[in-house]
Amino acid sequence: MRSFLTQPKSVWAVAFAAVIAFMGIGLVDPILPSIAADLHATPTETEMLFTSYLAVTGVAMFFTSWLSSRIGAKRTLMFGLVLIVAFALFAALSNNVEAVIGFRAGWGLGNALFISTALATIVGAATGGSGAAIILYEAALGLGIAVGPLLGGLLGHISWRGPFFGTAALMAVGFIAIVTLLKTDSSANARVEPVALSAPFTALRRPALGLLAVAALFYNMAFFVLLAYSPFPLGLPAMGLGLTFFGWGVGLAITSVFLAPLLTARMHRTTVLRWALALLTLTLIAAGLVIESVPGLIACIVFGGLVLGVLNTVLTESVMEATDLPRSVASSAYSGVRFVGGAIAPTAATMLADSFGAPVPYFAAAGAALISFLVVLIGHRVLRRVNTSIESELDEAAAIAAGDAS
Hints:
By secondary structure, this protein is mainly alpha-helical.
């Protein structure tokens, strides 16, 4: 815990901006019904706010390591933040849902540049090894996802435009923090070997990384059904939705920071993944069965957050340990596939609900989580490297030392 808290200012600056960036994922959750009502949009059109955002984020992530290796981590982070500020402002000033969907896509491009570079930057600059850095990153993710819906509920209670204006303002603060605290000559911004444009695609040929990417693809479908579809069957006002997903995000943050390390200290990472994915499958089935009960559905959503926190951390750790590839390449390849999976889920969920009934998206999401479980189960021999934590930590420390020396 001490190594987790004792970090350079540059790491905290990136982590702060990461919190704001991750707010963008859940920020629109509480205002989906308001946008649908005020802009005369259908639920499927409204879910496109997630789809355009995540699709562009996923595709762009394949190319972020190539760009970052040429212009440096700091410029990539700053470029991403400028895009987020600009497109969040454009979305706030829009008068139809099509424009908001388009500007969310631009927002996703900025987020891709920021998020994939932020992880590599934090891992490169943090003290205490990759474990502490990944926990810090996942804590930023959890805090951002937790606060995002709450901020969305508070500002969305006034107007659906409020959360977009709020994000633009906070991201501007994050931009200033990166400019002033992340020094150009710091180890996190050290010049690296240029990455080939094809590197993330080639990386996916590595069996362990490719298998984890497939597992994450289906896992993210389940993740975003729970996050993006649930506001419609809940039927709560903006503040009620904000509080519900605040509880979901707090649970996610707590288990990603505290429970996941305890579990991986006692069990193999693949074992933790199998148990957590099985639990997520059962949680989603329960959500479909209790969908008519608001308290029951809220309980499933909050409990789901606890499970997702463990999965987020252990999957990220597994990706980092799965190969000897540069972290930025592994992160780009894995995150690209993962976010594309998330892009499919929200729109597909409302289409399934329209055609077959409100509970069906949860059962479909349970099927996606089950596929992810089977991928990890069947591929356990391929994933043996992710369980060799002691050797990997030593390798990680050697890599950081070599980077600092150069």
